[in-house]
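Annex B. Sample input.
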Amino acid sequence: MSRSLIVEKPGSWRIATTDLRDPGPGEVLVRVEAAGVCRADRDLFEGGAGVDPRAYPLVPGHEWSGTVLHVGPGVDRGLVGAAVTGEVLRNCQVCDRCRDGDTNLCTAAGGELGFSEPGAFADRLLVPARLLHRIAPDADLAAAALLHPAAHAAAAVLRAGVRPGDRVAVVGAGTVGVLALRLLAACSPARLVAVDPRESRTGPALAAGAAALVPPATVSERFDVVVEAAGGPSAAHEALLLTRRGGTLVLAGHPAGPGAPLSPAEIVARQLTIHAVAGANSAAWAHAVRAYNAGLLDLRALVTHELPLEAFGDAMTLLAEPATGKVLLRP
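Annex B, continued. Sample output.
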């Protein structure tokens, strides 16, 4: 049996107890320790733009951590008892995109946890063993649920290719931006700056390794590498303006609308290298997990609230408050 939070339709949810099948070939059954709540979960709950109405009813939850309870046929029994997290997209690992290493762009994916497949807002979770990443026994397992946004940040940092001595800026000091700052600080930049209009983000940004947090309108310097992690309508344009001639810009935010256009003429004239990041491939996941297991990522510092599944409505309310960091649901 499993307790799950089911969103029946936009604005309507309930807690249900249902039968859960045994893990099949290549699968594991995980006892969920914690699940992070993010903007995408709120969009699912509210039926926001871009949400497929055919997706309901569904069990959300794509940021998670837990312990392996049982394994299916063909899975190493040594996984039983292991602390784990896992990738969201059920990538096939054999298509051309997966073979190239872009597992996040899989062309034959078998579903997405928390969206088209039952997610982690439950006390039990069935997942393919091939998507698991082990958490160190002495690490904070509940906070490890935030390795999903950490992997996204890692994907951006790996694309950035920062060298020691580079001058680096991160636009947006939300969850992904702060995690990117932590990973970039380990690259020994000569200067690392967070760019965000919210003064309330100063503390998290400085704690993550930034030398300063500055509002976009006041930045006069230019940077070798700029990582855009805000997703606001003008964030990509602001990040481009901060990038020096011949520099590198990484777009990792998820804009809700079309936003301010980037000028091709300016990109060419300034000979900029631009990368886009859509989620995290397996290499980025492995990078984030290694950093966490080594104690280089303080995910616990991002958590401001821990709530039971029954307080899902409160979690939705908290997400709208500026002071809220990450909310964890504890089944």
